[in-house]
Write a structure and sequence with these properties.
Residues 565-586 are annotated as: Disordered. This protein is α+β, with helices and mostly antiparallel strands and 586 residues long. The protein has helices spanning 11-37, 72-77, 181-216, 219-238, 241-245, 255-274, 276-279, 281-303, 308-332, 338-359, 370-414, 425-437, 458-465, 467-482, 506-525, 549-577, and strands spanning 55-58, 80-82, 90-98, 106-112, 118-125, 130-135, 147-152, 159-167, 175-180, 447-456, 488-494, 497-504, 532-539. Helix content is 54%, strand content 16%.
C-alpha cells in the first residue's frame, strides 16, 4: 500500500504557506471594508462619472412609466420601494434624480454594473424633455454590457432617470452613471480596446496551444486550450458579442453556461499539469468531483435560469480556489513547474476577491467595471499558464538532456577499459559500425587499416611476479599504443589482445609497423625483458570508397592471420637464440 505523508514538510515552507494565506485573508478583508466605505467606484478605465443614488421599486405586470417629470412624484408614491434588486431576477423600477454639474449640454446616461436581459431607459426633465430607449441582452443593443442613452441636459434644470428592468438574474447591484459625451467616448474607447485585447489574447493562446496539444498528443496542452476558448465564449456572451456584433440569437444559452462548463476542463488541467494523481491522489479526486458537479449543474442552470449565475459564480470560485491551493501546495514542495501556475491563479484570484462580494449583491462595486477587470485577470492568467506550459516543456527538455548526457557518460564508461584507459571491444565494434556508415570520399588520400596485437609474456609475468605486475605490463602497453598518433585509435579487446584502427596511405602503414616494433623493443629493454608484442596489419584496398561490415570482418581476420604468423616467427627466433645445453661425458 502506498502512503503519502507530509510530516517532513520544512518549517520554512509551512511558515511561507501561513504567510501567504494570511496575506490573502488580509487582502480580502481590506477589499470588503473598502467596498463598504466606498461612496463611488474607483475610475480605472476612464474619467470619473457622476453617480446619482438609485431608488429601487418592485414592478408589477402592465405598469407604465410616468409620461412627464411633473407626474413622477405621484407615480413614485404609488410604487413599493425595496432595498435593492433581487439577485435571482425579477421586474424592477430604478429611479434616480440628476442635474448637470458642468456647463455642457451633451450627456450620456449609462445603465451599468450588472447583466440584464431587457431594460427601458427613460430620461424626464422639468423642462418638458423626454427621451426613451430600449436596451438589454435580449434586444441585442447593450453596450459592453450596458445600456446608454444620449440626452441633452440643460444646466439649471432637474432631471430624472426611470428604468424598467427585467431579467432572470442580476450579476451585481445596478448603477447609473452620468458623463459628458466626450468623457463617455473616452471611457468606451478604453474599455473596448481592453476588452478586445483581452479576448484576443485568450483566443490566440487557446487556439495555438490547443493545436500544439493535439499535434504532440499532450493532454495538458489540450485541456488548457479548451479552457482558454471556453473563457472566450463565456466573456463573449457576457459582453454581448454574439447578439450585438454578430446578430446571433443565442436563445436560452447565455454566458453562465460557459462558466459552469469551465471547471470541467479547469480542474482536469490542474490535476494533469501538477500530476496530482501521483503526488496527491485525494486532491485529484476532489478535482474530479468538482468537474462532475459542474457537469450536473449545467442542465440545472437551464431548467432554473434564476440560479444560473449563482451556480456559475460558485463553480468558478471553487475551481479557482482549488487550482490556486494546489499550485501553492506544489510550489511549497519544490515543484518547479508550479511557479508560473501559482502566479497565474494569483492574477485571477485578486480581481476575483473584488468581484465575488459584488456578484452576491453584498457590497457595491469598488471599481467602475469589475467585470472587465476580471476579464483582464483571465487574460493575464492565460498568459502565465502559457508560460507555465513553456516552462514545463523546458523542464522536460532539461530532463531529456540530462538523461542523454547520463546515457552518454554510461556508454563512455562502458566503452573504456578501466585498466589501460583504452577503448574496449564495445568501443571497437561501435567505431567499425560508424566507419561502415560513411563513405571514403577521397581514396587517394588513404584508406582504413586494422592492426591486431597480442601481448607476449603476460602469463609468465603473472605467474612469476604476480597479477599486479601483470597489470603494470598491460598499462605500459596501453600507454605506448595511446601515444602512436592522433589518427590511430587503440583498443584493448580483452586479456592480452589489443587492436588499432588507423587511417592513412601505405607510407603511414609502414610508419605504424615501425612504431609497433619500437614499442616491442622498449618493453624488452624495460623492466619486462620477457615480454613483447606480436602484431599484424591489414589495409583495405586503396580504391574502395565504402567498406561494409563483411569487409571489416575480413580485414580483422587477415590482420589476425598476419599477427599469428608474426608470433610464430618470434617464437622460432627465441628458440634459435637460446644457447645449446652442454653435453656431459660419463
Amino acid at each position: 500500500m502506498r502512503h503519502y505523508s507530509h510530516a517532513q514538510e520544512p518549517a520554512s515552507a509551512r511558515s511561507l504557506g501561513r504567510g501567504v494565506m494570511g496575506f490573502l485573508l488580509f487582502a480580502l478583508a481590506l477589499l470588503v471594508s473598502t467596498a463598504c466605505r466606498a461612496t463611488a467606484p474607483y475610475p480605472l478605465f476612464g474619467p470619473t462619472s457622476q453617480e446619482p443614488s438609485v431608488a429601487t421599486y418592485k414592478a408589477a405586470a402592465g405598469e407604465q412609466a410616468p409620461q412627464s417629470y411633473t407626474e413622477l412624484s405621484t407615480w413614485l408614491a404609488a410604487r413599493t420601494r425595496v432595498r435593492s434588486v433581487d439577485m435571482l431576477g425579477g421586474d424592477f423600477w430604478l429611479v434616480s434624480s440628476l442635474s448637470p454639474n458642468q456647463p455642457v449640454s451633451d450627456w450620456v446616461v449609462t445603465f451599468d454594473n450588472t447583466y440584464y436581459e431587457n431594460a427601458s431607459m427613460l430620461v424626464l426633465g422639468d423642462d418638458g424633455s423626454r427621451r426613451q430607449v430600449e436596451t438589454g441582452a435580449d434586444t441585442g443593443v447593450n453596450d459592453i454590457p450596458r445600456g446608454t442613452i444620449a440626452v441633452t441636459l440643460t444646466p439649471g434644470h432637474r432631471y430624472a432617470v426611470v428604468i424598467h428592468v427585467t431579467s432572470r438574474f442580476y450579476t451585481a447591484l445596478p448603477r447609473i452613471d452620468v458623463q459628458t459625451r466626450t468623457q463617455y467616448h473616452q471611457r468606451r474607447t478604453n474599455e473596448s480596446a481592453l476588452m478586445l485585447g483581452s479576448l484576443g489574447v485568450l483566443f490566440g493562446l487557446g487556439v495555438f496551444i490547443l493545436f500544439v496539444g493535439l499535434w504532440i498528443k499532450d493532454r495538458s496542452y489540450t485541456l488548457y486550450g479548451c479552457q482558454a476558448l471556453i473563457l472566450v465564449l463565456g466573456w463573449g456572451f457576457f459582453f454581448g458579442v454574439p447578439q450585438s456584433w454578430l446578430g446571433i440569437n443565442t436563445g436560452p444559452i447565455n454566458f453562465t453556461q460557459w462558466f459552469i462548463l469551465l471547471p470541467v476542463v479547469h480542474a482536469r488541467f490542474t490535476i494533469r499539469f501538477l500530476d496530482l494523481w501521483r503526488h496527491a491522489p485525494r486532491m485529484a479526486r476532489v478535482g474530479h468531483t468538482i468537474a462532475l458537479a459542474s457537469i450536473v449543474a449545467l442542465p440545472i442552470s437551464l431548467f432554473f435560469p434564476s440560479f444560473a449565475f449563482l451556480i456559475a459564480t460558485f463553480a468558478v470560485s471553487i475551481v479557482v480556489l482549488f487550482s490556486a491551493s494546489m499550485g501553492l501546495w506544489a510550489l511549497l514542495r519544490g515543484v518547479r513547474r508550479a511557479r508560473f501556475f501559482t502566479l497565474a491563479y494569483m492574477a485571477v484570484l485578486v480581481p476575483g476577491l473584488i468581484i465575488l462580494p459584488v456578484n452576491f449583491g453584498l457590497v457595491p462595486s469598488i471599481v467602475d467595471n469589475a467585470d472587465l477587470l476580471t476579464l483582464m485577470g483571465n487574460s493575464c492568467e492565460a498568459m502565465l499558464l502559457a508560460f507555465a506550459l513553456a516552462d514545463h516543456v523546458k523542464l522536460v527538455e532539461d530532463g531529456r538532456e540530462r538523461f542523454r548526457r547520463g546515457m552518454q557518460e554510461a556508454v563512455a564508461k562502458a566503452s573504456i577499459d578501466p585498466l589501460t584507459g583504452l577503448g574496449n571491444r564495445l568501443a571497437f565494434n561501435v567505431m567499425i559500425e560508424e566507419i561502415t556508415r560513411r563513405e571514403n570520399t577521397d581514396p587517394a588520400q588513404g584508406t582504413w587499416q586494422i592492426a591486431m596485437i597480442d601481448l607476449d609474456g603476460l602469463k609468465q609475468v603473472n605467474d612469476s611476479q604476480g597479477h599486479e605486475r601483470g597489470d603494470d605490463l598491460l598499462q605500459a602497453v596501453g600507454e605506448g599504443l595511446a601515444r602512436l598518433g592522433d589518427l590511430i585509435r587503440a583498443f584493448r579487446l580483452g586479456g592480452d589482445e589489443f587492436a588499432l584502427i588507423a587511417y592513412g596511405d601505405e607510407l603511414s602503414q609502414q610508419r605504424l609497423a615501425r612504431s609497433l616494433t619500437e614499442l616491442d623493443m622498449t618493453l624488452r629493454e624495460s623492466d619486462f625483458p620477457d615480454a613483447g608484442i606480436s602484431f599484424g596489419i591489414c589495409s583495405a584496398p586503396p580504391n574502395q570508397r565504402h567498406l561494409s561490415s563483411a569487409d571489416f570482418t575480413e580485414l580483422v581476420r587477415e590482420a589476425d592471420r598476419t599477427m599469428y604468423a608474426h608470433k610464430s616467427r618470434r617464437r622460432t627466433e627465441r628458440v634459435t637464440d637460446q644457447p645449446m645445453p652442454e653435453l656431459r661425458s660419463e
